Give the backbone structure.
Amino acid sequence: MIQLLSWNIQNGEGVDGVISLERIADTIFNMSNPDVICLQEVSRNCELKDGTQPDQLKQLSSIFKGYTPFFGPAYNVLRPGESEREQFGNIILSKLPVLSNFNHILPQPVDSSFRHMPRQVTEVTVETPFFPICVMTTHLEYGSQKQRYAQVKRILDIKDDIDQLSLNPATVQEPGPYAKLERSNKLILCGDFNFESESKEYALLTNNSQNQEGLIDAWSQINPNTKHVPTCGIFDKKQWPDGAHCRDFTFVSSNLKSNIGSFVVNEETDASDHQPFFVSILDD
């Protein structure tokens, strides 16, 4: 069995306004001892609400000893007057060997009527005791359904590319960039999707079409006909005045649906505006 944990940590900012990555780590390890940790809203040299500009990649690397970090910046810029580059995105920390790593920038269809930011997917393929697994984590656009829908379409295209490459690998293999790259078609996608289960984006991601196979909602797979446990808005009523709801999910490819062992959401912590959750994956 392996365990994967996902959490939008809001740069480590709790509902009390205190920014503490140590508290994030303590919360995680009080829940479980995950093999893979996927965190959204991680920054490098961004000015946070307390006025600091920490390198959270460096901080998390120091805190999570024994894990290898794979940071996926959605953008990488040099602001006027600054000497350090500013980055913001998602990170995967793995105790398991990572066979490959990719960073995918997601579409950002132009719309000037709301604030929005670049979004991305971090992808790794990890070697587990039973078979390689592709893990992706993302944080989709908050303010625009149009952008989220385009971002979901791109994620499905990435999944389709991985599926096709596994079925039809290149017949000519050479050393270096032309050598085979391990990208498993057994896939886990987790993160903050900024949509709910009744949305068009959720339907697009989970429905099968003539050309593409959808993903399986891990919670619903093992809890059929049961409402999703809330992952957001439990404690932070200022940001989420509509109250507790679920906008964070784990999806798996159909060839992993029988391997889902458990799905646990921590509804007690207020160390972020979102709740951490983990899923366990069993051997065949």
User: Anything to note?
Assistant: The radius of gyration is 18 Å.
